[in-house]
Amino acid sequence: MDIISSSSFSQANGIARRFKDMGDGTYAEVTAMASSNPSAILAGQQVGTAAAVSLPANPIVNGIVITALPANTGTIYVGPAGVTAANGYPLVAGQSISYGVTNASAIFIIGAVGSVAWTGN
Asked: Which CATH architecture has domain 42-120?
């Protein structure tokens, strides 16, 4: 009952096809999803300014956490491009928020009162 490779191939959607010898002259198809777990944990810091600025471009698979640094003297606002103090999510020193994005650059911050630390993978 071995998995044979003569009929196996990979497809662009991440599914690999394999066939298992069932021992009675038939074969059963075995499917498995390709792993999308990243091989590294990413981290950095971004200084807040009076104009919205994005986090640096980094591909993200499992999400990202953004934390206002403890030394901040006011509120940092987090959101998409065009974020403002009126429409952003407020973070004061020590507070965090997480997002499920595919790239860190989709997240913007605004506020000239400190910085944020971020980590994701």
From this structure: Sandwich (2.60)
| % the chain with pLDDT above 90 | 64
Domain ranges across the chain: 3-33, 42-120
Which tokens is 95 given?
A: 């507070």
pLDDT single digits (tens) 34-89: 556 777 899 999 999 999 999 999 999 889 999 999 999 999 999 999 999 999 99
Q: Which residues of 36-69 are buried (b: 16+ CB within 10 A; e: fewer)?
A: eeeeeebeeebebeeebebbeebebeeebebbbb
Q: How many CB atoms lie within 10 A of CB 18?
A: 16
User: By C-alpha distance, which of 88, 12, 6, 38 is closest to 116?
Assistant: 88
